[in-house]
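Working notes for the structural subgroup meeting. M.R. asked for a predicted model of this chain before we commit to crystallization trials. I am recording the input and output together here so anyone reviewing the notebook later can reproduce the run.

Input as submitted:
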Amino acid sequence: MHLRAINKTRNRIVAQEVTQARSFVQRFKGLMGAQALPMGCALHILPCNSIHSLFMRFAIDVAFLDKHGEIIHMLHVFPPWRLGPWVRGAHSALELPAGTLEFSEAHIGDCLAFEKS
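Returned structure, recorded in token form:
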């Protein structure tokens, strides 16, 4: 089932096609080995309070969300082959194509929701 991510605070669609990674294997693999993350797509990892970009070939944006969907931390253009920070209070992470957070004008404190597309 695919979802879309909507920034309820700014009334904007952040990603039109969101895949969720819930199992240990799905969460660990994430985007490793992918050629790219197309614009409009995203990976929602939950639970998740830290990410890595090891074995990735491209940069991503990441929004860390608390259990209510509020953005509590963001990584802009996070490069491949890096270990991300541990984000206190994060319940999930939304991985997006690089530049998406800036383009969608997302800010810390914005509330994201996931709806069936």
